[in-house]
Amino acid sequence: MQPLLLLWLAGAVFCDLRWRKVPNLLVLAGVVGALLSLAFGAALPGLDWPAALVGSGAAFAVLLPFYALRLMGAGDVKFAAALGLWVGLAPLAPIAIVGSLLAFAHALAVLVLRRWPLSPRLMLALSGREADGTASPSARRPIPYAAYLALATLGWLAWRVPQ
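Below the sequence we write its predicted structure tokens.
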């Protein structure tokens, strides 16, 4: 298993859950790591340059309209494109489906807790608000989609890639 990929995915989960942002430096680290793994033959089994480039382009092209409609942050789109370099085109569909289901569950939890506020602390965490209840800069986009894509990828890696 690729330790650099695992570290990058963990960083994305942490940053997106904590700040609802995927920093450009983290995306760049993912792109460089993926390109180096391809260049030195350390990519995931069965992944080659064409598959990685097509995966990256497809992820970017599919998610870009969501950014244009202000339904998704730019970091989510860039993260998905970098993720495509790491895994290629074929696994992106199941990863996106699982990641979207996780994001849907998050959105549903936000809606339920807005209606029936059982735990103020949980509501703050899910809605992207600060501990004092004030809106953080990320409160406009409360769903950390890149984090859920990263978690789905970790699940796919655990299921798919031989140890």
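The first helix runs from residue 3 to 19.
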